[in-house]
Design a protein that fits this description.
alpha/beta, Rossmann fold, Alpha-Beta Plaits, 3 domains, binds adenosine-5'-diphosphate, binds magnesium ion
């Protein structure tokens, strides 16, 4: 049956259809079905759709359909606000790109050395994904040539404006041909975005998807709680819902550390993520959260930006966010891609009174006194994470680690969780009861005939 939301309706390579279906993309999401016809038609598009609505594929399918693999020049540039988000966008592009051999996607972000990036740039790429600062760095050094760019994408444009990247973006654009297609994607649509669009696009088609409250299946409610009782209200909420995983948002870095520490003291396992972490610490934390070695992430907005966790049970606003847009960003992380989620917000009496001016939708208050303190409540993850000091550069693959654990250590594969392989490190989640066995085996045993250092993340 040919439905209007089928990808097959689009003029895209047939091979790509197979790839999309192998990714589990059966139907287009609303933003995809509304924007892709224009994107594929070469129009400038200004598209707004909430977080988790599939914006990446909306432009990804567009740029990959038009790409000419034989022309080994940068044909598309995607600018993202953060490194994390750039990596996610690049990963999605690479997934979709599997329909054809040899499409090269390169990320250029800050926080890593220039050297290897210069090397990669010399090798060439079809698509570059990066953050404004680093892209400009390369442009200034003369190591990045954008003269052959045909499609420019500004992803999470609202975040980029929030972060003060307006001028950087303009500068980057000055290195590009004026004749190009420009796609602008944003979760929200403030006036500043329209101004940005005006200055970088010509005759753009503007698409706003209706924010359907029901669509994402998010149950949202609020607890009025005096400041001094906030923490105990939080633990009661956790006790009542016992979510599989949850992100708790705070407005300050210090608070993320404090809350995580206090939760751990109560036998509720939690990790903080904030801008003070080194890149490797950040990776440790995110890997553990995603692979079920940690159920609670206590985060600031900046640290959680662009984080794509497919199945997030709950979001808690420990602090009321500073704007409704941030509120939407935070709560939009739960219930992604059609899953159900709960978003709970704590506010004091003063904030509760002002909520009407702030929350642009219906909201429900719940009584904190209805929450019961669960005795001996504890929240522990099912897994622990083992780190192996070897990765892609050592030619390690998931199969090698799985083999060492199942064959050598005799651990059943059902007790082995997600395996993440990075350039120089690999992470494997293991059901807690088997972590000691796994550790001992990997410590004495070999992977690919070599002995690697291993340790357990605590
Ligand atoms: P956004 O950029 O709008 O926040 P993403 O592009 O990150 O959203 O997509 C959110 C999630 O939805 C991702 O996990 C992605 O793999 C998934 N997704 C995107 N398009 C589809 C689709 N057509 N069918 C099913 N899942 C999809
Ligand atoms: Mg996105």
């Amino acid at each position: 049956m040919n439905n209007e939301n089928d990808f097959s309706k689009l003029s895209i390579p047939r091979e790509m259809l197979k790839t999309l279906s192998s990714m589990g993309y059966d139907k287009m999401t609303p933003i995809q079905s509304q924007s892709l016809p224009f994107v594929l038609d070469g129009k400038d598009v200004l598209a707004q759709a909430k977080t988790g609505s599939g914006k990446t594929a909306a432009f990804g399918i567009g740029i990959l359909s038009k790409l000419d693999v034989k022309k080994f020049k940068i044909q598309s540039l995607v600018i993202c606000p953060t490194r994390e988000l750039s990596e996610q966008v690049a990963a999605e592009l690479r997934n979709i790109a599997k329909f054809q051999h040899n499409i090269k996607v390169l990320t250029l972000c800050g926080g890593v050395a220039f050297g290897p990036q210069l090397g990669s740039l010399r090798h060439g790429a079809h698509i570059v994904v990066g953050t404004p600062g680093r892209l400009l760095g390369h442009l200034n050094k003369g190591s990045l040539d954008l003269q052959s760019v045909e499609i420019l994408v500004l992803d999470e444009a609202d975040r980029m404006l929030d972060m003060g990247f307006f001028e950087d973006i303009q500068k980057i654009i000055s290195y590009m041909p004026t004749k190009r297609q420009t796609l602008l994607f944003s979760a929200t649509f403030p006036d500043e975005i329209k101004d940005l669009a005006q200055s970088v696009q010509t005759d753009s088609v503007s698409i706003e998807t209706i924010t359907n409250e029901e669509a994402n299946n998010i149950v949202e409610y609020f607890y009025k709680t005096p400041k001094r009782e906030k923490f105990s209200t939080l633990t009661k909420i956790l006790g009542e819902h016992n979510p599989l995983n949850v992100i708790i948002f705070c407005n300050t870095k210090i608070q993320t550390d404090e809350i995580a520490k206090e939760l751990r003291q109560r036998d509720i396992d939690a990790l903080a993520i904030n801008g003070d972490l080194e890149q490797y610490e950040r990776v440790d934390v995110l890997v553990q959260f995603v692979n079920k070695s940690c159920r609670i992430l206590v985060a600031t907005d900046v640290a959680a930006r662009g984080l794509d966790i497919k199945e997030l049970d709950m979001v808690i606003n420990y602090d009321l966010p500073n704007s409704f847009e941030i509120y939407t960003h935070r709560t939009g992380r739960t219930a992604r891609a059609g899953k159900e989620g709960v978003a709970i917000t704590l506010c004091d009496e003063y904030e509760a009174d002002k909520l009407d001016e702030y929350i642009d939708k219906k909201y429900i208050f719940r009584e904190k006194d209805d929450l019961k303190e669960k005795r001996n409540f504890s929240m522990q993850p099912e897994n622990k994470t083992l780190v192996i000091e070897g990765g892609k550069k050592n030619k390690i693959r998931a199969g090698d680690i799985l083999g060492a654990l199942t064959k050598e250590a005799g651990i059943k594969s059902v007790y082995i969780g997600k395996i993440d392989i990075f350039d120089r490190q690999s992470y494997v989640a293991i059901q807690k009861d088997y972590i000691a066995k796994a550790y001992t085996q990997l410590k004495i045993g070999k992977i690919k005939g070599k002995n690697f250092s291993v340790w357990v993340l605590e």
